[in-house]
User: Which sequence fits this backbone?
């Protein structure tokens, strides 16, 4: 019963949501909307579980003085401080002089930007290390990559300004993006969409059931 | 139909307020010297139509423009569309619309209720009462959205094909599945982690459970956990969202149970991190650099973090296997990881790993539908080239 | 030094070169000429073609991580819209983005006030702020904007704002300008709003996600597309502005050229190794 009931709920709700895509009548659309709103509420409760786990795992590590306990202390203090400050300030957090806004502008914002900007460095090292031309196909790929990379920025057009308009890097990269890139992308997307449907069907029919856990 | 002109002053006042709001009236001392043009001629031919295939939530109104509706003439600033529950009002504003407009779908009414509509042209010289109102218009709800018939056809074919091949596989005709090097590499990677006495890191993507890639990633996690249980190697699963976090716990527990080693399951092997993209990345790269897992497995939806994870992972010397259907991130994984599952391979992985006949049969069903789609595309191209639009029109949904 | 020695090059040297290549042009711009591409021209022309004074929905779905790419295009789009006296309703579907989006919008509003072209909050623009729920919010907005956002970013009741009196649902807008750094973003707006409510749409997105949206551009679901900082810079060029993106383009040009060089050098090293090994 512990497994059958969840499987039944999954199948009924799954098929009902598929039905709601085809039936606009309120008999179907109103409960479907309600179910979607329920999902948002369930997710909100999930955060309580998640937050509790984050606190428990990190506090345990601190208590046991595990090798990286200092980092975990920073995490726990930051987590608790942000929540407490948010609770104290309430809706005033959006005021320009609020502590929450200070945290957002002076900590959150630069840390986010820093992490994202690391990509520029990592792309350079990955390009140097891993982009190896071992076959003809890889060679074609590399040529296309170079054209798109340089054609996207002014330097590419500048380098090929002596060529006729249509052969400069800008227009050529646009053609690569519009034609071969688009075709390959669509093919992969269609395949992936079928995969999505197949996975959904397996779950609705209860063939894929490992997510229910190991108990019987 | 009657021509209601109750409280025309109130209407004009309301219109002037609207005009002032849209900035279409500029009142100044200079303007007061310019003679006021006459009121515009009224729009005509107001008709209504229930929007088909909806939940009774729309009525489409169309009318003919006022003969004075021209930018050069400056007599018309726009139109006011109003709705009433009887032919004589009271009238409620539906919208004020720019000049040149001849259509508006009213979506702010109740289904199965009769309404009457009127449209009025307004300009600097005032407003002209609507020539005639229209109604009763009733928005009726449909039981079937017929524009989605094509989707239903493909969905039904897909379900039937998958079910057929599943039952065929169960009765012994198991289809051939090509080798997926990326999946084969997982066991090798876990074996290597065991030899080195280091953990395995499993990342189920950065999306919530409503993204099916996360579901696929979590399904594969069960098989991976079974292998780590078999090899007695610890597994680390940092998760970004709370619902996938609880499911990941179940998956790992299930894997250990199915491997016959439930006592080895460590509840802290699955941890909730944060849905915040780069906080999640910081946690995972922290695990990579401090715990030095010997195998990194990335299966699910990834965005900008893909290269940050894979490139940091590379520096630790771990074997890296990735799989995602986020096409724009595939290039990063292909370059920086040892093996990559591309697009649908991610969804096929659980069937491949388990070898369960019904799951493998499902793959065959999806392949046959793919063939059907390819044929449809080719036929569609030919028909479009010949100027026959029937198939394309049938495929368009709303 | 032998070429093969480069294979063991400490990657921090590469990082240092990238840092210098990015920093240099920021301090001393080179001024490489920009040529607006077709998707960018389409974006510009799509906004130019909407009637003056129309109401436009602008969804800014990003957070500080996407600031260098997203903020310049948000600013330029706002300037173009306000030059046409369009009234703009702004939303944000990213948890960490509403503060940055409000700051960006206010920066442009302050700039216009200084130029003597004032815009008034509540009349010319409204920032509805963040709403949790991703695609569910998009669908909810179709049933009524006031329903989805009962309060604006500054906790004012939405119904109290003059501009919002003219806004009901998607049919109140002539266009959706989506500036997005990922999920939820352009793809979801196309699927949930453009397809269902037929609201014309243009998109500004990160460079990495731009290729994913080309099919939408080709199919006419997007009327224009700005891809990353390059797209933003080309857009600034079309608008005659010399904004943040234009300033960043020299740096990006050199960084792209360096990455291209890395690919070439990596392969040269590989080939020389093979040659040296007598292969």
Assistant:
């Amino acid at each position: 019963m512990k497994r059958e009931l969840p499987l039944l709920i999954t199948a009924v709700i799954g098929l009902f949501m598929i039905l709601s895509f085809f039936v606009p009548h309120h008999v179907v659309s109103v409960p479907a909307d309600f179910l979607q709103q329920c999902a948002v509420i369930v997710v909100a409760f999930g955060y309580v579980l998640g937050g509790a786990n984050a606190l428990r795992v990190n506090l345990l590590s601190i208590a046991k003085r595990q090798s990286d306990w200092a980092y975990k202390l920073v995490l726990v203090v930051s987590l608790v401080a942000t929540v407490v400050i948010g609770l104290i300030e309430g809706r005033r957090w959006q005021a320009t002089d609020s502590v929450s806004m200070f945290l957002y502008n002076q900590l959150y914002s630069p840390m986010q930007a820093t992490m994202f900007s690391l990509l520029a460095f990592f792309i350079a090292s990955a390009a140097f290390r891993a982009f190896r031309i071992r076959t003809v196909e890889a060679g074609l790929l590399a040529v296309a990559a170079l054209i798109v990379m340089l054609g996207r920025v002014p330097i590419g057009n500048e380098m090929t300004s002596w060529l006729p308009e249509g052969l400069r890097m800008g227009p050529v990269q646009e053609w690569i993006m519009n034609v071969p890139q688009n075709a390959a992308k669509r093919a992969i997307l269609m395949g992936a969409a079928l995969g999505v449907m197949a996975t959904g069907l397996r779950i609705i029919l209860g063939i894929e059931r490992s997510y229910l856990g190991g108990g019987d | 139909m009657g021509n209601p002109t109750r409280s025309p002053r109130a209407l004009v006042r309301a219109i002037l307020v609207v005009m002032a709001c849209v900035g279409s009236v500029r009142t100044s001392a200079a303007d007061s010297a310019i003679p006021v043009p006459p009121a515009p001629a009224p729009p005509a031919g107001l008709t209504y139509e229930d929007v088909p295939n909806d939940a009774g939530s729309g009525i489409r109104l169309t009318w003919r423009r006022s003969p004075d509706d021209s930018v050069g003439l400056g007599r018309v600033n726009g139109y006011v569309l109003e709705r009433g529950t009887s032919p004589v009002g009271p009238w409620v504003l539906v919208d004020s619309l720019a000049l040149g407009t001849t259509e508006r779908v009213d979506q702010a009414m109740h289904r199965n209720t009769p309404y009457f509509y009127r449209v009025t042209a307004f300009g600097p010289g005032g407003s002209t009462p609507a020539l005639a109102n229209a109604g009763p218009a009733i928005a009726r709800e449909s039981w079937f959205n017929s524009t989605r018939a094509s989707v239903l056809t493909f969905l039904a074919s897909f379900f039937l094909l998958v079910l057929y091949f599943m039952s065929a596989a169960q009765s012994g005709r198991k289809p051939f599945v090509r080798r997926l090097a990326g999946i084969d590499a997982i066991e090798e990677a876990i074996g290597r982690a065991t030899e080195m006495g280091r953990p395995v890191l499993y990342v189920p993507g950065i999306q919530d459970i409503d993204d099916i890639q996360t579901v696929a990633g979590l399904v594969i996690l069960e098989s991976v956990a079974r292998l780590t249980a078999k090899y007695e190697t610890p597994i680390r699963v940092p998760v970004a969202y709370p619902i996938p976090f609880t499911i990941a716990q179940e998956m790992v527990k299930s894997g250990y149970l199915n491997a016959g080693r439930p006592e080895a399951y460590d509840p802290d092997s699955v941890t909730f991190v944060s849905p915040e993209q780069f906080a999640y990345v910081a946690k995972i790269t922290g695990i990579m650099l401090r715990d030095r897992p010997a195998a990194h497995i990335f299966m699910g939806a990834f965005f900008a973090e893909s290269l940050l994870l894979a490139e940091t992972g590379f520096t630790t010397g771990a074997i890296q296997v990735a799989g995602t259907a986020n096409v724009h991130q595939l290039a990063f994984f292909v370059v920086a990881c040892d093996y990559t599952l591309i697009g649908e391979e991610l969804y096929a992985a659980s069937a491949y790993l388990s070898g369960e006949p019904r799951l493998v049969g499902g793959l065959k069903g999806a392949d046959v539908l793919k063939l059907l789609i390819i044929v449809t595309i080719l036929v569609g191209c030919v028909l479009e080239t010949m100027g026959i639009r029937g198939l394309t029109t049938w495929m368009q949904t709303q | 030094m032998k070429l093969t020695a480069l294979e063991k090059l400490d990657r921090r040297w590469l990082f240092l070169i990238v840092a210098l290549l990015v920093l240099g042009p920021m301090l001393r711009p080179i001024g490489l000429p920009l040529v607006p591409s077709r998707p960018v021209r389409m974006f510009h022309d799509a906004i130019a073609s909407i009637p003056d004074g129309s109401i436009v929905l602008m969804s800014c779905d990003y957070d500080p991580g996407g600031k260098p790419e997203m903020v310049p295009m948000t600013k330029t789009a706002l300037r173009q819209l306000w030059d046409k006296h369009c009234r703009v309703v702004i939303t944000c579907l990213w948890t960490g983005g509403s503060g940055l989006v409000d700051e960006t919008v206010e920066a442009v509003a302050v700039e216009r006030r200084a130029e003597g072209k004032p815009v008034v909050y509540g009349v010319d623009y409204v920032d509805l702020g963040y709403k949790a729920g991703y695609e569910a919010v998009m669908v909810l907005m179709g049933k009524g904007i006031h329903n989805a956002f009962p309060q604006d970013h500054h906790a004012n009741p939405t119904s109290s704002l003059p501009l919002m009196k003219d806004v009901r649902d998607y049919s109140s807008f002539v266009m959706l300008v989506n500036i997005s750094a990922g999920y939820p973003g352009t793809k979801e707006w196309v699927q949930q709003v453009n397809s269902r409510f037929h609201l014309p749409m243009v998109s500004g997105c990160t460079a990495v996600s731009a290729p994913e949206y080309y099919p939408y551009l080709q199919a006419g679901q997007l009327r224009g597309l700005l891809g990353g900082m390059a797209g933003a810079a080309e857009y600034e060029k079309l608008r005659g502005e010399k904004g943040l993106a234009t300033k960043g383009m020299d740096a990006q040009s050199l960084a792209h050229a360096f990455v291209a060089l890395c690919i070439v050098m990596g392969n040269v090293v590989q080939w020389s190794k093979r040659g040296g090994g007598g292969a």
User: Anything to note?
Assistant: The two ends of chain B are 34 Å apart (CA to CA).
